[in-house]
Write a structure and sequence with these properties.
The chain has about 675 residues and is an alpha+beta fold. It has 15 helices and 27 strands.
Length: about 675
């Protein structure tokens, strides 16, 4: 009898322990030093730990109520929903030499992004050699870096080593659940075969063999009428791996300038937000436990770029930044180039890789109310709310950085994070939040050396220096309360945040440059009566309603954005750097912005050249007496930016040298040459 009672007690203890921590165990799959044990400054050598975390969620816990369909997922004998996720950790081999901060990056579509951006690394998901760490900024600072799988709809690649999540599948008492899904696609050139699953995407399985219910439509504009393409004129292309097809073949060809939409009845919806719970619970576990010889971190920061930043905003909205016991799992968040969006992370048949943009993907829940960190009211729906309502209820508001580039004001509705939904009034951020616009920067630093499908050369401005300075500022804010730079973004009140019409009126008349028709003005989408409460879409595609009003930064006389953080390249310009680019006629939709890319348009080199071209912007000759004068001005501007906290002193000399080299290439470039190669060092 005693033995039976003891066993029952152990089972109960294990059960309740899991319900609180939600992590069953961590399994180590690989562990070794990176870069052959080389030291990264004071942090010393780093080790890589690759493993798998095993989770167990209580489907009835209040903290898990936001996870759509969790109650319909299979359960183990304890009544818990179990699943696993691969993780990757980089940390000082001697933990005492680290800075005490765990920095968790939400991977972007299974890929590590922070090393490529902040460390100028070549990219890749298995960093091992010294070259894989670029300038090694994050390692030299002593951060423990962590990533884990959270998203399902990305194609696995053995070589790429993407972090791919395998969520539980929801069923009705073991019977398959079905529902309508829709996929938008476009092509940039005529094509017999086109992929419909988006960026590195995967598709939901078919509810019936043969997919006889599938419908393919075409329209000329996002708001235009759909025309059905006869079923006999197109077919699914079998996937090479024998899985769910990802491509369509069309009789004739898919043509640029057309939006195609595939819809069909799918089966087996994933419990997509279990991936967000995995992020939450892995961080919760590590905050409270030593791990493989290292103590629990003193601080935890979460970091997300683009899609990954939208994950953070969704977690905050749903209250998934606290664990099942109500404890915060991170102290601060760095949300970069996410705009105002959330995403397809927490509803039935959700597709995390898809997001609303000017031209495509209009049927996905991305830009939905609320957006601001303080309470706002939508006059169309009469709803009052804020992004942090749930966090306030839980008394768990982390410190927050919302950092966007100019592109996000054109393509990701970024103005909505600090204005009302009608674009009429500024709304101040919560005291625990900072908002920054990195003026003149595009979504990522442009690297494309030809125009391709774009009308203009891309914008290569390096805004990653500012990101490094801001990350350290966020860490200090958590570490010792040091105040970060004040919010710096354009405002309606001072005229630096304006309508697209006002932007066009103020923008210089640069010969040959076509301004876009509009920025992204996302409509309020109606997914049906069950969507808000049950996270089930009845209207697929959704029914569009009144658009939200979004604004853009006002341009100065050179066409460079005002109101945000002006980096030295903007303070001492050699050309116009915009957050938008436009598509060519050949690629289709020439009225629309490119999805992520901005433009760089150099100044004329001499006054004579400026007059000949009809360019209203003063020439380089009128601005600078040569490279030495230009570098001197850049150096002085850089010191001003250092004083404001948006640049590190140790990066000034490299910035000045790179700026001088860029100046030389602009001066040497013949404006008749439409190549963009001159923007980059050979």
């Amino acid at each position: 009898m005693f033995y039976l009672i003891l066993c029952l007690l152990l089972i109960f203890t294990a059960w309740t322990g899991v319900a609180k921590a939600a992590v069953d165990r961590l399994e180590i799959l690989e562990r070794h030093l990176v870069a052959e044990g080389a030291a990264f400054g004071a942090s010393g050598a780093y080790e890589k730990i690759r493993g798998r975390a095993w989770f167990a969620l209580d489907p009835h816990a209040a903290a898990n109520a936001a996870i759509a369909d969790l109650v319909l997922a299979p359960r183990d004998v304890r009544g818990l929903v179990t699943f696993g996720a691969e993780f990757l950790m980089l940390r000082p081999a001697e933990p005492a030499r680290g800075n005490g901060t765990l920095l968790y990056e939400i991977n972007n579509r299974g890929n590590i992004a922070i090393l490529a951006q902040l460390d100028a690394a070549p990219g890749g998901n298995d960093p091992s050699t010294a070259a894989d760490f670029g300038n090694a900024f994050l390692l030299q600072q002593g951060f423990t870096l962590l990533w884990s799988a959270w998203t399902w709809d990305v194609i696995a690649d053995v070589q790429e080593k993407r972090l791919i999540f395998e969520p539980p599948i929801a069923t009705l008492s073991g019977n398959p659940i079905t529902g309508e899904v829709a996929y938008e696609l476009l092509v940039d050139r005529p094509a017999k075969i086109a992929e419909f699953t988006g960026i590195q995407g995967a598709a939901y399985g078919f509810a019936e063999d043969g997919v006889r219910d599938a419908v393919l439509t075409v329209r000329e504009r996002p708001e235009g009428p759909r025309r059905v393409i006869p079923r006999a004129d197109w077919a699914f292309v079998p996937a090479p791996d024998g899985g769910v097809p990802r491509q369509l073949a069309l009789e004739g060809k898919f043509e640029p300038g057309h939006l195609y939409e595939l819809s069909y009845r799918a089966r087996d919806p994933y419990v997509v937000a279990a991936g967000l719970a995995g992020i939450r619970d892995l961080l919760a576990f590590l905050r409270g436990h030593s791990f493989e010889g290292a103590p629990a971190p003193a601080r935890t920061l979460i970091f997300g770029i683009s899609q990954s930043g939208r994950v953070i905003q969704t977690m905050l909205l749903r209250g998934m930044h606290v664990d099942e016991a109500g404890r915060p799992v991170f102290d601060a968040a760095f949300v970069h180039v996410a705009g105002a969006g959330k995403g397809g992370f927490d509803y039935r048949f959700a597709m995390p890789t898809r997001h609303f943009s000017v031209v495509q993907d209009h049927g996905y829940a991305t830009d939905y109310f609320p957006f601001t960190t303080t309470t706002e009211r939508d006059p169309v729906t009469s709803i009052e709310a804020s992004l942090l309502d749930k966090a306030r209820q839980l008394a768990a508001i982390p410190k927050l950085f919302f950092v966007n580039n100019s592109t996000e004001y054109w393509n990701r509705s970024a103005s909505l994070i600090h204005t009302d939904p009608m674009g009429q009034n500024d709304l101040p951020p919560d005291t625990r939040a900072r908002i920054y616009l990195l003026a003149g920067a595009q979504h990522y630093s442009g690297q494309q050396r030809d125009r391709g499908i774009y009308a203009n050369c891309v914008n290569p401005m390096n805004h990653y220096r500012a990101m490094r300075a801001l990350l350290l500022a966020l860490d200090r804010w958590v570490r010792d309360g040091s105040e970060p730079p004040p919010s710096t973004y354009p405002r309606i009140a001072d005229g630096t945040l304006v309508t697209v019409a006002a932007y066009k009126a103020a923008f210089p008349r640069i010969p040959g440059l076509t301004l876009p028709e509009s920025n992204l003005r996302p409509p309020r989408l109606d997914f049906g009566p069950r969507f808000a409460a049950e996270r089930i879409a009845d209207f697929v595609p959704p029914r569009p309603g009144k658009p939200l009003e979004t604004l853009v930064p006002r341009p100065d006389a050179d066409g460079n954005d005002e109101g945000g953080v002006s980096l030295p390249e903007i303070l001492v310009p050699v050309g116009t750097r915009t957050g938008f680019n436009t598509r060519t006629e050949e690629a289709g939709f020439p009225w629309a912005t490119a999805r992520w890319d901005g433009s760089f348009i150099p100044f004329a080199r001499t006054d004579a050249e400026r007059r000949r071209m009809g360019d209203p912007r003063p020439s380089l000759e009128a601005r600078y007496r040569g490279r030495a004068d230009y570098e001197q001005k850049v150096s002085a501007a850089a010191q001003r930016v250092v004083a404001l906290g948006f640049l590190r002193e140790e990066e000034v000399s490299n910035l000045v040298a790179e700026a001088g080299s860029f100046y030389d290439r602009v001066v040497a470039h013949d404006p008749a040459d439409r190549s963009c190669r001159y923007l980059f060092p050979k």
